Amino acid sequence: MLALSVTALVYATGGTKYVYVQLMYLPVLLSGLLFNARVAFWFGILAGLMMGPLMPLEVAENIYQPTEAWLFRILFFCLNGVCAGAVSGLLRHRIRLLEKVKTEIAMTYGRTLRALVVLIGERDDETADHCEQVAYNAVCLGEALALSDERIEVLYWSALLHDLGKVGIPEAILNKPGPLTPEERLEMQRHVDIGYRVILQASSEFAPIADVVAGHHERMDGTGYPKGLRAEQILIESRILSVIDVFEALTSVRPYHQAMTPEAALLMMQKESGRQFDARVLETFMGLLRRGEVMTTQDVAALERVKDRYHGDGLFLSKLKNA
Ligand SMILES: [Fe+2]
């Protein structure tokens, strides 16, 4: 269409003697850039013929071009088109390679995170199961609170890895049947910092995940650890994790207590609404629980479904694509 318009313009403005004939390079170049060298070659010939024997040199005086003039023009059009096609082909090949590398990097990120999850399972099966369930419920709560897909993926991974730091806590403290001494409690609290540092060491790309993990024991009233952050200073993902983590802990059998029913656990947690927990997050969680939309006992099939959804490369692939 562009080539036909240029042909009409050249004829209307007096013939190939005038400058408008040069405009035909534009569709020829475009054919190379948008398609490939072969298409551009044939388009160059077609464009050359349109500006060829039937197009006068001077329309008003009815003077026609010498044969060698339009033949040379065809050659230049073809050369131009083929060069543009070759450059665009090379660029397309490079872009494909780059996409492949990006996908591989993203998958490596995913595998690294999954390896950290496996590490938790190797140390303690119970902690691993707890983390899987926390991750499932965190995703449900994140969706109910209308978090973006990207934040929900961060939430998923931080929920899975929130207790990663426990691999660095002595077994005797981790599984102590009775209450912890103040020193033991301090030692136990180190799991937040250990988890944060290990995740960050694995890759700086995991910083959003590490930040959420760092805040999962903070409390709304500022009495949490490690920084004593308050309310909005605590990331929403960490506030979500805090609710789910405590609920999961209260409703499971632990060395130091029997499992509570979900109702009893919620009743206890409600007393801490606004103090330990974000009231809106807790309220939303209670709604989900009432509607049976969160997991209260292990449901292996549901856990596998969520695991498949966040196999690891999605988050990092989208991040890399935006880079
Ligand atoms: Fe924790």
List the uncertain runs.
none
Average predicted confidence as pLDDT = 85
How many structural domains are formed by the residues? Answer: 2
State the helix count.
Answer: 14
Walkthrough of the structure:
- There is one protein chain.
- This protein has 323 residues and is mostly helical.
- It has two domains: 2-97, no CATH class; 124-322, Orthogonal Bundle (Hypothetical protein af1432), CATH 1.10.3210.
- Helix content is 66%, strand content 2%.
- The protein contains 14 helices and two strands; from the N terminus they run αααββααααααααααα.
- The protein has helices at residues 2-12, 25-34, 37-50, 67-123, 125-144, 149-161, 171-174, 182-202, 207-214, 236-250, 262-270, 279-290, 300-309, 313-322, and strands spanning 56-58, 63-64.
- A hairpin with a 4-residue loop joins β1 (56-58) and β2.
- The longest helix is centred in the N-terminal third of the chain and has 57 residues, at 67-123.
- The site of fe (ii) ion (FE2) has 5 residues, from loops.
Features:
323 residues, mainly alpha, Hypothetical protein af1432, two-stranded antiparallel sheet, 2 strands, 66% helix, rod-shaped, binds fe (ii) ion
Short description:
With 323 residues, this protein is mainly alpha-helical.
Secondary structure elements and pairings:
Blueprint (H helix, E strand, L loop, with lengths): L1 H11 L12 H10 L2 H14 L5 E3 L4 E2 L2 H57 L1 H20 L4 H13 L9 H4 L7 H21 L4 H8 L21 H15 L11 H9 L8 H12 L9 H10 L3 H10 L1
Antiparallel strand pairs: 1-2
Fe (ii) ion binds next to loops.
